Amino acid sequence: MSKSAQLAQNSKLYIAGSSGSAKTISAIAVGYPTIITISGHGLVNGDVLTIAGVTGTDAALLNGITVNNVVQNHVTGTTNDTIALNVDTTGKTLTATGTVTPNLWTQITNIKAIKPGGAAASKIDVTDLDSVAKEFEAGLVDNGSVTCDYYDVVADSGQSAVLAAFQANTVSNYKLSLTGGSTRTFLATVLKFNTLPDVAVDGVQTGTFDLQISGAVTRS
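Now predict its structure.
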């Protein structure tokens, strides 16, 4: 096995749940990324945040990013007292007021396999009458879908949260925490969920759910 290859065991998938406790912002350093100081914040890479109450001429750069009517930013790097947001505030005016509220994560347990379908860009035909052969440009990227095989456990709060998102047709935040410390966070809708498990002689109850990724995948 390659020495740089990462084992898959102990990778975990989470769905965003309710909001945690608000944390007070004590300083904002403009630039790219934007550095926010929150003493002893306890946040980790991949957390999704709600920012509110920042003031200044350009406060909308932090307070005005909305996804499903929730202000969110993906954490791209952290220290014990600072977080780095993937937002360019170079030369802007921001005042260190307000709060950061993290989404709490619920682990979806009893998962056997996580199988992304892969990302692909659309193909745009730009051939014209002066072309000597067909010409193309790449369009927007479709990050595809993710299929998850799981052991059906009714008492599992993560599986119940995915089922609820499926039944309500909601877009939710997901975090894939990989062995080795890297994470992937993304928004997705649940396109398929086994409301009845697969059962067989000498088998266990299993199911599958499919997540359709919406927008970008953040790597950290």
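Confidence is low (pLDDT under 50) at residues 66-71.
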